[in-house]
């Protein structure tokens, strides 16, 4: 596996990221797990395989989407139930007919992003979340549902609200109690908890608004404004914890185990591309040809997701293979985008080594 490590070392030299942790598995066996570079540049601190990362948008598949899976399996939610029939605030809006399915696969017609945090300054997290939800209710659709596929943070902010209504508790509480705890995933969590605040966190941006280098504090501005728990961002975790959850999903999908939490039929639905207008399955992306971040060797039966802070995973359902890459590419500045070209190079090398 030396060539894989060399690709990561080259990335450090080329300034793709200050540090990262790479894990690759095949048929349920971890064949590569190694840390590279630095978790923080000043003062210098090395990356380790136990470093905790701000997972950014990996929150969408690894918290919000799996929460929806669980509620669907419990018969409390349906993929085609509408927003207006679930969250009363939307009943008289242009979004009342949006379905859980459309929100999960980014075909709702909502905008991709809004800097809501700019209007939430100086509010407490609870007041900010109330105000943000009023902004979501007022936000007009910019496309008809199913017209185009537009990746949307807003859709997952709304999904968090919907899950909260159905579950009767916050997303962090529900997913912690019903998924992370039963699987022993102590290293997947929202808002770093006191007993592990001294753990090693991967630093993210030197943030002028907050006047410091962010570390163990959510990078996403909208998630930060509402207290760190959101449907689109806010989850923290280690590489091994991300992998453990993904392996549970993959083993269940392949019917290699009887999961106490997931059902293979649910995963068949969630891992299936939903429309011809985009590459999205339900909360998970699929390879978009020819320029997928998964490279050229992952099969069309693969699912994955990227996170803004430099995080990603890809899971090949045919080859029973998982790659998790967690980096701090936004440290100390977010304008470093070299990772876009790097990801497919890395994935191609891994596939060449593991699938000869």
Write the layout of secondary structure elements.
Elements: H1 2-13, E1 19-26, E2 29-40, E3 45-46, E4 53-54, H2 59-73, H3 100-104, H4 125-138, H5 153-167, H6 171-180, E5 188-190, E6 206-207, E7 212-213, H7 221-225, E8 235-237, H8 239-253, H9 264-270, E9 302-307, E10 311-316, E11 321-327, H10 339-354
Antiparallel strand pairs: 1-2, 1-11, 2-3, 4-8, 5-8, 6-7, 9-10, 10-11
Major sheet strand order: 3-2-1-11-10-9
Largest sheet: 6 strands, antiparallel
The coarse silhouette is: globular
CATH level 1 name: Alpha Beta
Strand-and-helix sequence, N→C?
HEEEEHHHHHEEEHEHHEEEH
Tally the helices: what do you get?
10
Q: Strand fraction band?
A: 5-15%
What is the CATH architecture term?
3-Layer(aba) Sandwich
* Low-pLDDT regions: none
Task: Report the structural category.
Answer: alpha+beta
Estimated radius of gyration: 19 Å
As for the CATH topology, it is Beta-lactamase
Mean pLDDT figure:
97
**What's the CATH H-level homologous superfamily?**
DD-peptidase/beta-lactamase superfamily
Oligomer: single chain
Task: Give the tally of structural domains.
Answer: 1
What does this structure look like?
- This protein has helices at 2-13, 59-73, 100-104, 125-138, 153-167, 171-180, 221-225, 239-253, 264-270, 339-354; strands at 19-26, 29-40, 45-46, 53-54, 188-190, 206-207, 212-213, 235-237, 302-307, 311-316, 321-327.
- With 356 residues, the protein is an alpha+beta fold.
- The chain has a single domain (2-354), classed as 3-Layer(aba) Sandwich (Beta-lactamase), CATH 3.40.710.10.
- It has a 6-stranded antiparallel sheet with strand order 3-2-1-11-10-9, sandwiched between helices. Strands 4-8-5 form a 3-stranded antiparallel sheet. Strands 6-7 form a two-stranded antiparallel ribbon.
- α1 packs antiparallel against α10, α2 (59-73) packs parallel to α5 and α2 (59-73) crosses α6 (171-180).
- The longest helix is centred in the last third of the chain and has 16 residues, at 339-354.
- It is globular, with a radius of gyration of 19 Å.
